[in-house]
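Hi there, hope your week has been kind to you so far. Please have a think about how the structure follows from the sequence. I've dropped the whole record in just underneath, so have a look:

_____
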Amino acid sequence: MHIEKALEVTDFSGGRGGKNRAAAVAFTRRKEVSSGRVRFFATERWDCNRTTPIESDFEEFQLFVILEGTGTFYDGEQAHPYRPGEAWFLPANLPTTLLKPDGVSSVLRVTVPDTGALRRQLRTGDLKTRQFSRVVMGAE
């Protein structure tokens, strides 16, 4: 790792720093805590205790990092067991995949966001304006 070289080319001017406060949204099958969305990626923590469909988008891959719990991903044809510490890459062209936890599973979901679709989804979740702005950081 070339930390000194990286620091030489890092531009610290004009940026806003600080800790991002997460906003929680409860969905039917999971509790989702958004760690934030910026132009290049979105991160959510899902706490699931029952079968949760993972909808596919032909323009968006999904990366799942298993934090806690065990269970199985079902892609319609095969079962794929998961456990903590693993990362699962779901290509954009998959059909709906099911996440079936054995008990409670906590996973991080990372995507490249479509901010327009994100706004529509969050507006239907009845978020207050302040919560909404925390979730959609830097979105147009």
